[in-house]
Write a structure and sequence with these properties.
The complex is a heterodimer of chains A (112) and B (116). Chain A contains no helices and 11 strands. With 112 residues, chain A is mostly beta strands. Helices cover 0% and strands 50% of the residues of chain A. Chain B has 116 residues and is mainly beta. Chain B is 0% helix and 51% strand. Chain B is globular. At the A-B interface, strand 4, strand 5, strand 9 and strand 10 of A face strand 5, strand 6, strand 10 and strand 11 of B.
Chain lengths: 112, 116
């Protein structure tokens, strides 16, 4: 009964590949997010999305794209992976008018 | 300018003692929210405590309290009666504007080590 879940937990892949990370929340929230945590532990927002609006951090390359099949899911697709994409990716969710974002366990991506 | 500043890369505290983790923030928006998250070595991000900019009282959650000093723009986390399980990275974060699909801005974190 995990509130926010992500799969896979670990992802090791070659440069140039395309990969996806899945995120699901069972909290009934209407807003979901993707964050990137770099090797220095710094967390930065990539996207926020509710069923009406996608807000993209302008620093995110267009190789990254979020896809939401329904309100409970926000998957992250990454095309043409690069070495610098290696990081931990966190999904989070909140209610639009609530105060707290709840995070998934993270996906550790390593690009070789 | 950094929106959230955590000046302590690492802190040590003796078990059962209290410890304060510093956080200062920078915003011109009158409405904002301040958060603390804990990241243990297992990697997950655990929500600890929240303070709204209009809240009159300092937030408390069990052994966690947030020392909110609005004029100084500081939101320090106080952990009382430290336990070995408190050893982790602690992140301060801020949401600007009223609650909504607003992103969190994170500080660089403080690594807390509790000594037996």
């Amino acid at each position: 009964d995990t509130a926010v879940s992500q799969t896979p937990k670990y992802l090791v892949t070659q440069m140039g590949n395309d990969k996806s990370i899945k995120c699901e929340q069972n909290l009934g929230h209407d807003t979901m997010y993707w964050y990137k945590q770099d090797s220095k532990k710094f967390l930065k927002i990539m996207f926020s999305y509710n069923n009406k609006e996608l807000i993209i951090n302008e620093t995110v390359p267009n190789r990254f794209s979020p896809k939401s099949p329904d309100k409970a899911h926000l998957n992250l697709h990454i095309n043409s992976l690069e070495l610098g994409d290696s990081a931990v990716y966190f999904c989070a969710s909140s209610n639009l008018f609530a105060e707290t974002q709840y995070f998934g366990p993270g996906t550790r991506l390593l690009v070789l | 300018a950094q929106k959230i500043t955590q000046t302590q890369p690492g802190m040590f505290v003796q078990e059962k003692e209290a410890v304060t983790l510093d956080c200062t923030y920078d915003t011109s928006d009158p409405s904002y929210g301040l958060f603390w998250y804990k990241q243990p070595s297992s990697g997950e991000m655990i929500f600890l405590i929240y303070q709204g900019s209009y809240d009159q009282q300092n937030a408390t959650e069990g052994r966690y309290s947030l020392n909110f000093q609005k004029a100084r723009k500081s939101a320090n986390l106080v952990i009382s009666a430290s336990q070995l399980g408190d050893s982790a990275m602690y992140f301060c974060a801020m949401r600007e504007g009223v609650a909504g699909a607003n992103n969190l801005f994170f500080g660089t974190g403080t690594r807390l080590t509790v000594i037996p």
